[in-house]
Amino acid sequence: MRTLSHDGDHDHTHYAKFSNRRSLAWYQNLELQIVGAITVLALVVRLWAIGYPTSVVFDEVHFGGFASKYIKGRFFMDVHPPLAKMLIALTGWIFGLDPSFDFKEIGMDYIEPKVPYIPMRLMCGLMGVAVVPMAFYTIRNSGHSLYASTLAALLVLFENSIVTQSRLILLDSPLIFFTAFTALAWVNFYGERHDPFSDDWYIWLFATGIGLGLSGSVKWVGLFIIATIGTSTLNQLWTLWGDLRISPRMWMNHFLARAVCLIVVPISVYMLMFEIHFLLLGSSGEGDGFMSAPFQMTLGHSLKDSPLGVAYGASVSIRHVGTQGGYLHSHASNYETGSKQQQITLYPHKDTNNDWILQRRDGSIPETLEYLKSGDYVRLLHVATHKRLHSHNLKPPMTEDENHFEVSGYGFDGFEGDANDEWRVEIVDHEASDPEAGEKLHTLRSKFKLVHQQMNCDLFSHKVKLPKWGFEQQEVTCMRSAVLAKATWIIESNRYDQYPEDAPMVNYKKLGFLGKFLELNKVMWTTNAGLTESHPYDSRPSSWVWLRRGISFWGKDQKHIYLIGNWFTWYLSSAAIVFYAAMRLLLFVRDKRGYRDDFNGLREYYELSGGFFFMGWCYHYLPFFLMGRQLFLHHYLPALYFAILLVSVTFDLVCRFMPNKFRLVLLLLVSSVAIYVFRMHAPLTYGSQWTRSQCEASKVLRTWDYDCNQYPETLSLYPTKSAVTSGSNSGSSAEVIPEQDKVVEPIENGQGVFSDLVSDDHQDEGSKAAGVAQAQIIRGVEVLGEDTGRGGGEEDGTQATD
């Protein structure tokens, strides 16, 4: 892989300093040995005892449940794109997941129903393993030293929060995997910049585009890597534009190659994931209610053609336009507040309780057909309960605003109704293909308001749910000065036995892939933005860089899993971010004052790859400050990955002119502290045994809210078998699951050393594997340090990124 030397003038490889093939082969073999040892250690750390806990943990509730729905083929709605969920489902299907297991609660046992949860976790775990060597090669192929590359890999390897996320059926491990792959592909592409349009140049450019598409197909947070690569691309094109050696035609070739690979390819990959998603979920399911009627018709729902004109006497269903709440609905249950009359709600599914008969203002039905037009008055009689749609000067059950009034179903046998049953039809919009629908009320094609005659308010609904006594259906009110979008309705079905046989008929237009794709992404966006409720373990972005608190995932038998980062790595990476920003500000000020500091080539050396990783951190972190939705610590992990890469770049800057042995000592010191802190908090990562005193001693900040009182005073109070081996027989002891954690996210703690993670029967084998791998890494860098005795500057190329 080519890199850029720090003087910016010469291409060379990492290995250009070796004078003969034998030395080169030895050096390359050494590098492979270090990568191999780190990867083996990553396998141990990521996958050790991955079968524990043997019950549903944290958001496995959601993503395991989605796997069951994929296997059933039942449509569901989720705020995340489908790729990682489909990979989880594929793994479950291959290993025989019974789709009747629904993962619906934290703590549900996996063993008795024979859920293949270990392969499903392994899929995420192996992606977590792969991130470690990718971090190594991202730094190495950016032109940095073997020391810096090893440091980056080890810091990623022993990051507790990344390990925790990698061991469970969650989306963050695939997200970080594809993000890391994309960054590596881009670094490799940049390394080929002096050989444009070569095979390797195209391969890595295309691979970057694939990575962008895959990252965005896991979570929308993956779109931030698109912004990172996009900014770097613009910088490249700007540089090429100013290069007099590049002709306009050549520049256009550069532009088109990047446009195809970095725009067309990612969009195509993203859309392909949704095409597969739609093919797998072809049947009606729990997510239907989020989608429009045309979308639902692609899931097996059917809607008979209805006459175009709407007449008095017709039985109609009325759908709300402004939300996906569904149909105007009533049922034989009363409000527990206000008038205590019959409930009027929105209901998302087809039902006979959605049917209303249109009557004249006086409650009569004409003997001959009389079609409705804008400005006509109606009464709406509920077919099933014979109550009329009614409003009056009372507060609605949920909304306190003084402009809202209760809407109810009112009436009884022998009662002809009153003026509070009267509504005026006002057509506010219509399909352009049917001009008459702007004056005459047409099925599906006219959008209209229902204005209450007495109260001068509009029939209205919004995404506010009634309590359990209202079956958690959507509230309907009558609102003065209502937002038009939420006071707009359409007639969806229209039946009347007096319509002529030759009456023009209408139905929804058939929705193709593009229509479904756009609608689902719009619903995902609005639903995601609506996740604003608080959670016991949510947090704001300003607290993430300081690791003020974590997230409780699971607890049982005095053992817990709690997402918390390796505080040493976390603070070191935050310091690297601050240091880089301060350095760039200092250089900017000095440039403005007429000084041009080159620092013997170190400036370019630091700005290229350091700038790219700093930009990656900014794009993956700062946008969260603009989000009002519910956020958690794990949203910071992709940004943390870039911050760790910046730590290794800073390491090379600080140590660039040090002898190799000093660099080795510093590498071992930093890595040892990271490993020590990792082991200190390992019981929180693995859910293993811990004592109360060890737990208390581990709290660096008072804001870390895992409960140490859940642990025993001594390890002897645990059962004789370890957390890992006893877990296979769990099914008895009750899960420690706070009520607030059951729906969306977590529960309580864990910690320790590798020796604490397993029973005595398995301890030596696991520790030995980790020890051997660590020894190989140390031996490799020690040999490198003894190889030449030179300073690092002679070994390194410089950055391959901008």
Taking the sheet with the most strands, its summary is:
6 strands, antiparallel
> What separation lies between the terminal Cα atoms?
16 Å
Strand order of the largest sheet: 12-11-8-7-4-15
Classify the beta-strand content into a percent band.
5-15%
Q: State the helix count.
A: 22
Mean pLDDT: 86
Secondary-structure-derived class: alpha+beta
- Which consecutive residue ranges, at least 5 long each, have pLDDT under 50? 1-13, 722-779, 781-802
Region (Disordered): 781-802
Family: Belongs to the glycosyltransferase 39 family.
Subcellular location: Endoplasmic reticulum membrane
EC number: 2.4.1.109
Describe this structure in words.
The protein is of the alpha+beta class and 802 residues long. It has two domains: 18-275 and 537-794, no CATH class; 306-505, Trefoil (Acidic Fibroblast Growth Factor, subunit A), CATH 2.80.10.50. The chain is 43% helix and 12% strand. The chain has 22 helices and 18 strands. The protein has helices spanning 21-47, 60-72, 83-94, 117-140, 146-157, 160-166, 172-190, 199-216, 223-241, 248-280, 293-297, 513-529, 567-592, 602-621, 637-655, 660-680, 682-686, 692-698, 723-727, 754-757, 760-788, 792-795, and strands spanning 3-4, 11-12, 306-307, 315-320, 327-334, 342-347, 355-359, 377-382, 388-391, 404-410, 423-430, 446-452, 458-465, 474-479, 489-495, 505-506, 551-556, 559-563. The strands form five sheets. The protein has a six-stranded antiparallel beta sheet with strand order 12-11-8-7-4-15, with no helix packed on it. Strands 5, 6, 9, 10, 13 and 14 form a six-stranded antiparallel beta sheet that branches. Strand 5 and strand 6 form a beta hairpin. Helix 8 (199-216) packs parallel to helix 10 and helix 14 (602-621) runs antiparallel to helix 15. The chain is elongated, with a radius of gyration of 32 Å. The two termini are 16 Å apart.
